Write a sequence for this structure.
């Protein structure tokens, strides 16, 4: 067993991550191969694709597998061949998958779009081929990466396939967008549509943050009537009302939204992004009800959902096909740790979701419990305004500078002059984390070396850092914990300089009337304690709205399964017609299309083929008739994994 595999499995025995087959990449020395100086990339790509197409269209699994790298190969599919998100690791798993699915999906009409030699490092090179193809229900795309063999041949190491469009139902953009002239009735028509005077929405989305708006936009351009419910008075208030120091830590090219790129002006500050979300919804004419709350949503015997909405004190009742929670990690529910003595503390206790402005606590002693992104942002805000602030670090934190880290992780994929956003998203998705973990380890080590002065300064102050899960930096932490890291935008230097005080030498034993007491007997005075300790289980919001019976059927939301796919979000949640949209701006942008395609297929199949029948079992039968049973992994079934 390789050192990388051994270390991963050893770690996973003590974490909630599943065991993974490998994190290896294949540098040239490991392949015992070289790149000939006269390599004809176009010929290699065309010859390989010709052999692949011949085998795949004939459903010749053995012939197909002969084209794959024998030591390690991975195939990730998003809807195109499985109607799910699946990653198959190893020849045996892929062989079974192809045997099961090729007779049903019948992929055909493969067309190469582009091929190129991509040197990632002096010892790491692959040929990347992008292509399009068709299945029996739509258009799809693919990306395959070939690595050289000792014999001089090239074989596939990574394959990615993605459903792009359902046959007959393209997105209404470009030349297909609606172009009816305004005859003076637009305002009234818009008002009537927004009020749903005639008919119920097909999809109801709870939450008008970026995830909810992304999906609403996708559905609008597929002609699926959608209503978004937002509890706040204005779209964007979920950003506008958070702490003043909240900002994006990503380059703007990573954070675009569907159909309307995020302008560079809005790349950082929370209030500017909040205004952008409001502008986005208005410009795309998305149907959003603000100051409204979904008080109850229950599935009915017909396979749809009965939904009650409190709008300005008046109830509206709809029957909808799909209910989507787009309420973020934990649904915004604060995760308050419990410590003895909290009831006798005389000061103020806040969660980071409740904290607003540093100036609210001028002249007071503030302790921020937590040492990841929110904690750093909030502590830096206090320090910048002259407030006495101490960060209490419970465990080690992965820290990278945005200056060095973002260049390494994002450029050139999400950078000025990089590929179009949809191309960048496919490129990113085509690299399954468990297949290229070693590549992330390399990048993480390089970032740490570039950040050596910063990290040494933090260590000198006693701040504890790590290199992420399995030394992979921010990646696995984000997908498994949605936290545990800080992309530094200035707070680290404040810690080094002592402007932000640090306490991390003992665990909290209890609160006292005037502060905190620790296991070693030391005490820390505090007038205000801010818990930057994350959010609760996302299923808590589902429970509040849909009841225990529905919530108990929901699968885990977030974290990685054994294949390296995210649990619950954007996929089957365990309850028909119930979905959870979440993730950063890039993930929500990309996967909103996958969710919309699933909903579009279900809706139009219903209209075209079974008009007048009940939704539920008929739709299920149609999906199974076209796709076979959804090709889901065993470990994704309800109850198999416990959070």
């Amino acid at each position: 067993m390789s050192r990388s595999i051994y270390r991963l499995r050893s770690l996973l025995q003590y974490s909630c991550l599943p065991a993974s087959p490998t994190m290896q990449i294949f540098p040239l020395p490991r392949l015992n191969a070289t790149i000939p100086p006269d390599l004809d990339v176009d010929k290699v790509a065309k010859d390989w694709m010709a052999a692949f197409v011949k085998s795949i269209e004939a459903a010749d699994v053995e012939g197909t597998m002969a084209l794959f790298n024998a030591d390690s190969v991975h195939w990730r599919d998003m809807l195109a061949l499985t109607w799910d998100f699946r990653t198959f690791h190893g020849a045996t798993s892929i062989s079974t998958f192809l045997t099961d699915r090729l007779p049903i999906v019948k992929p055909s009409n493969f067309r190469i779009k582009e091929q190129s030699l991509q040197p990632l490092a002096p010892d790491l090179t692959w040929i990347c081929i992008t292509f399009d193809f068709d299945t029996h229900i739509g258009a799809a795309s693919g990306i395959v990466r070939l690595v050289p063999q000792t014999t001089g041949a090239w074989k596939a190491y990574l394959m990615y396939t993605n459903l792009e469009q359902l046959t007959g139902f393209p997105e209404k953009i470009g030349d297909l967008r609606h172009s009816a002239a305004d005859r003076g009735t637009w305002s009234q028509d818009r008002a009537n549509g927004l009020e749903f005077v005639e008919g119920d929405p097909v999809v109801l989305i709870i939450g008008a943050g970026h995830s909810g708006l992304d999906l609403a936009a996708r559905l609008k351009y597929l002609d699926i009537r959608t209503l978004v419910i937002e509890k706040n008075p204005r779209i964007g208030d979920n950003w506008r009302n958070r702490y003043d120091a909240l900002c994006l830590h990503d380059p703007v090219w990573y954070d675009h939204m569907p159909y309307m790129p995020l302008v560079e002006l809005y790349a950082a500050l929370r209030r500017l992004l909040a205004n952008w979300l409001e502008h986005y919804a208005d410009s795309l004419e998305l149907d959003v009800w603000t100051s409204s709350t979904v008080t109850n949503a229950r599935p009915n015997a017909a396979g749809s959902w009965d939904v009650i909405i409190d709008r300005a004190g008046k109830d509206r009742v709809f029957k909808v096909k799909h209910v989507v929670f787009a309420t973020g990690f934990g649904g915004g529910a604060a995760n308050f740790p419990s410590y003895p003595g909290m009831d006798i503390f005389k000061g103020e206790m806040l969660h980071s979701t409740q904290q607003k402005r540093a100036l609210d606590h001028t002249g007071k002693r503030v302790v921020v419990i937590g040492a990841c992104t929110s904690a750093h942002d909030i502590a830096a805000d206090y320090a910048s305004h002259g407030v006495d602030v101490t960060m209490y670090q419970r465990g080690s934190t992965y820290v990278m500078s945005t200056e060095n880290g973002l260049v390494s992780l994002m450029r050139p994929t999400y950078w000025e002059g990089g590929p179009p956003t949809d191309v960048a998203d496919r490129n990113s998705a085509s690299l399954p984390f468990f297949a290229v973990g070693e590549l992330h380890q390399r990048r993480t080590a390089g970032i740490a070396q570039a950040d050596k002065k910063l990290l040494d300064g933090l260590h000198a102050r006693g701040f504890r850092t790590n290199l992420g899960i399995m030394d992979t930096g921010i990646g696995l932490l984000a997908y498994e914990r949605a936290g545990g890291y800080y992309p530094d935008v200035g707070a680290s230097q404040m810690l080094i300089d002592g402007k932000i005080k640090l306490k991390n030498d003992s665990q909290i034993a209890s609160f006292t009337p005037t502060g905190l007491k620790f296991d070693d007997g030391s005490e820390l005075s505090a007038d205000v304690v801010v818990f930057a300790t994350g959010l609760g289980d996302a299923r808590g919001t589902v429970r509040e709205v849909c009841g225990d019976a529905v919530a108990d059927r929901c699968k885990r939301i977030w974290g990685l399964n054994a294949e390296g796919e995210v649990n619950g979000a954007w996929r089957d949640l365990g309850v028909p017609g119930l979905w959870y949209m979440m993730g950063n701006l890039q993930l929500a942008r990309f996967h909103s299309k996958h969710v919309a395609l699933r909903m579009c297929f279900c809706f139009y199949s219903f209209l075209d083929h079974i008009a007048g029948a009940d939704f539920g079992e008929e739709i299920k039968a149609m999906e199974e008739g076209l796709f076979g049973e959804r090709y889901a992994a065993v470990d994704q079934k309800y109850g198999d994994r416990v959070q």
Q: What stands out?
A: The two ends are 28 Å apart (CA to CA).
